[in-house]
Write a structure and sequence with these properties.
heterodimer, A: alpha/beta, D-Maltodextrin-Binding Protein, domain 2, 2 domains, two-stranded antiparallel sheet, B: mainly alpha, MetI-like fold, 2 strands
């Protein structure tokens, strides 16, 4: 998960397809050394460039530079991009000025894979593939091949104030009915029962509601996955919460910040693991976590996501780039542990490292980490393109805020998603 | 020779960074261009047909025709009014001129965040909620509700605050260019305030008005910054008050990199702007004065 970079200006957008042209024209600073045969690198070592988006946590940039500098078999230059990373990277892959190794949210997009812009990484894993968080590896797999190495896991989970639940005599919710009842019982004049984001969960909870009822965006055969009245009923639960006025709305910072919970404006909040240090500081041990509960026929769930390390097909030395990616993100378990726990608050993507992470050994953080392993769901499947996601998001807002008929909205999403998935698979 | 030395670099930049990309977008709009700017599969008008058949895109175009019909006259009248007041005032004219113009120097992103997180924050301590709280009203989550659509109040007020000053300055420059002799002659003929405005100031401002209207129309359809920063939440944007450019950003030109459909949408939008601007130019009989 990344915060959206909101610095995109209208001018950028108007440049349209031209943006990538402009990049070619002025893309001299690629972070990649001069890779012509005569120069670059030190000695005979290949020169590689590795791109990261800007992590908010202090020390991360130094850390990734340190890892790269320690690599013996190539001279790696790290490029740290504080700008609109996703856009820049996607556009630069069209040119020769792109990275050799780069991270991308939940692995490369399906269009990158179909367009031959990234290379197959399957052979790097060997037996270790069993050790990686399963839902994350599945998210980065297409056509039986793994296209990225998960770097570090982020997740979202339902966090509650123990004291508020105790005062109301309520157990942490295990089922969806429990949750709806708890949200209502915990709502008072000053406190709302539940915070799912300023849009009432329309943007955040759609996937989790589908999983609750035993559906998913797409089936295992890549067919549209939730054209079913029971899925409609699941989505309608969010509308029920909205109309019964138990949801907190209008917060200055949205669900990705714990302020609503720590300031006592709500009793339960769906938020990211990254807020745990803040919650811990403000509330001490007065908080606990549960996965998003299930309805009949479904399962509990927590959304997980990971930046995946990918290798560009246009790299001047694909083998060297792959070897570096394997070294850092598969072999160097100490660096992976450092990266996951020393700066931000994440879960190592290799399950065997979780017991070694001091931050995750006890309390709610340990519960969250085990939920990520047991109930983790990638936020959306790889074939669920931005176009599908926009249609789904529109439908969710109409269901939750306007009370639109869920089945009609599901049909509208299906109309967009079916041809889009076919287009991608073609 | 010297002409090209001075004009050349600028003209070259214009061609390379403006004209080539525009023509390239038009070219791309006829191709299936996923993740590439050098596509090979020609689809004719297919992308245009897809975009025009897309109810979400049509609804965003429709919303912004209505938005333009509202925001253009409103900004026009308010900025003209501010210019007339500032031109008329005898005390602290420079002060008022600066005060009205100051917001123009503010970044759209910063203003949007102030509007979203401070003025119209949904908590009871937000400025708007504190104000209605004095009247005993419950706090309103301004940006969360769709019924009534309070989000328009937030967006329109932010936009007016940001833009008024700029257009006021344009009008002010126009007003100050009007020959005072005209007013003196009219005064001798017995013209009063309203008559002076109707028969001297407004006709003399025709050229300025035409330019301001054109800019306002283009601005209305190209809306992006304040909408995106006020209404988008963590990678999603609600299906209402969604400018065409924001929609294109989400479905085609952001992570999607679907340049064919994106370019087709952008060309359609450009065509709408051109048609509206032409109609407006014809209505104002562009260039009749001066």
């Amino acid at each position: 998960m990344t915060l959206p970079t909101s610095r995109l200006s209208r001018r950028h957008l108007l440049a349209l397809g031209g943006s990538s042209l402009a990049l070619t024209a002025c893309g001299s600073n690629t972070g990649r050394g001069d890779s012509s045969p005569s120069g670059g690198g030190d000695g005979d070592k290949p020169a590689l460039s590795q791109w990261y988006h800007q992590y908010g946590e202090e020390g991360t940039q130094d850390a990734v530079k340190r890892y790269a500098a320690a690599y013996p078999d190539a001279s790696v230059t790290v490029k740290w991009d504080p700008g609109d990373y996703d856009q820049t990277t996607a556009a630069s892959l069209l040119t020769d000025a792109g990275p050799d190794v780069f991270e991308y949210g939940n692995g490369p997009s399906i269009d990158m894979i179909k367009g031959g812009q990234v290379v197959d990484m399957t052979d790097l894993f060997g037996d270790t593939v069993e050790d990686f968080n399963a839902s994350t590896v599945a998210r980065m797999t297409y056509d039986g091949k793994i296209w990225a190495i998960p770097q570090v896991i982020d997740m979202q989970i339902l966090v509650y104030r123990k004291s508020m639940l105790e005062d109301a005599g309520i157990e942490p919710p295990e089922t969806m009915d429990d949750l709806v009842a708890a949200a209502s019982a915990l709502t008072t004049d000053k406190v709302k029962g539940l915070f799912l984001g300023n849009d009432g969960g329309a943007g955040l909870m759609g996937g989790a509601m589908l999983w609750s009822a035993g559906f998913d965006f797409l089936t295992d055969d890549n067919e549209f996955g939730f054209d079913d009245p029971r899925a409609g009923e699941a989505l309608a639960v969010l509308r029920e919460l909205w109309t019964s006025k138990v949801l907190l709305l209008g917060q200055p910072t949205d669900w990705y910040d714990a302020a609503a919970l720590t300031s006592g404006q709500c009793a339960m909040q769906f938020t990211g693991l990254w807020t745990f240090p803040d919650i811990d500081k403000a509330l001490g041990d007065d908080f606990g976590v549960v996965p998003w509960p299930a309805m009949d026929g479904g399962e509990k769930s927590v959304p997980v996501g990971a930046y995946g390390s990918c290798v560009s097909a246009k790299s001047s030395d694909v083998d060297a780039a792959k070897a570096f990616a394997k070294w850092l993100w598969i072999d160097q378990t100490d660096d992976q542990l450092d990266f996951a726990t020393s700066y931000g608050f994440h879960i190592p993507s290799r399950t065997s490292l979780i017991p070694k992470a001091d931050t995750l050994t006890s309390g709610p953080a340990a519960d969250a980490a085990s939920a990520a392993t047991d109930y983790g769901h990638a936020q959306t499947p790889i074939l669920w393109t931005p176009k599908c996601q926009t249609a789904f998001g529109d439908a969710m807002v109409k269901i939750v805020k306007n009370g639109a008929d869920p089945m009609e909205q599901i049909a509208a999403v299906k109309k967009v998603a079916e041809p889009e998935v076919k287009r991608v698979l073609a | 020779m010297w002409f090209w030395v001075f004009v050349g670099p600028f003209a070259l930049g214009l061609v390379v960074f403006i004209y080539v990309p525009i023509l390239w977008s038009v070219y791309l709009s006829f191709f299936s261009a996923y993740n590439t700017v050098t596509p090979s599969r020609f689809v004719g008008l297919g992308n245009y047909a897809d975009m025009l058949a897309d109810p979400a895109f049509r609804s965003s175009l429709g919303t912004f025709l209505v938005f333009a019909a509202f925001i253009v006259p409103t900004t026009f009248v308010l900025s003209l009014g501010a210019a007339l007041l500032v031109a008329r005032t005898r005390v602290m004219q420079t002060f008022f001129r600066s005060v009205f113009f100051l917001p123009v120097a503010c970044s759209y992103v910063v203003a949007s965040l102030v509007w979203k997180m401070s003025l119209f924050s949904g908590v009871a301590s937000g400025v708007a909620n504190a104000a209605i709280g004095l009247a005993g009203h419950e706090p309103i989550p301004w940006l969360s509700l769709t019924d009534p659509p309070w989000y328009w109040l937030v967006i329109v007020s932010a936009r007016l605050w940001l833009q008024l000053g700029f257009f006021m300055i344009l009008f002010l420059a126009g007003i100050q260019r009007i020959n005072p002799v005209l007013y003196e002659a009219a005064a001798i003929d017995g013209a009063r305030g309203w008559q002076t405005l109707r028969y001297i100031t407004l006709p003399q401002l025709t050229a300025t008005s035409t330019a301001v209207l054109l800019l306002l129309i283009v601005n209305a359809f190209q809306a992006f910054d304040e909408f995106f920063n006020i209404l988008s939440t963590f990678g999603t944007y609600p299906p209402y008050a969604r400018p065409p450019l924001v929609y294109l950003y989400y479905v085609a030109l952001g992570r999607g990199q679907d340049f064919g459909h994106g370019s087709a949408g952008a060309v359609i939008l450009t065509a709408v702007i051109a048609v509206v601007a032409l109609v407006q130019g014809r209505a104002m009989r562009l260039g009749r004065e001066d």
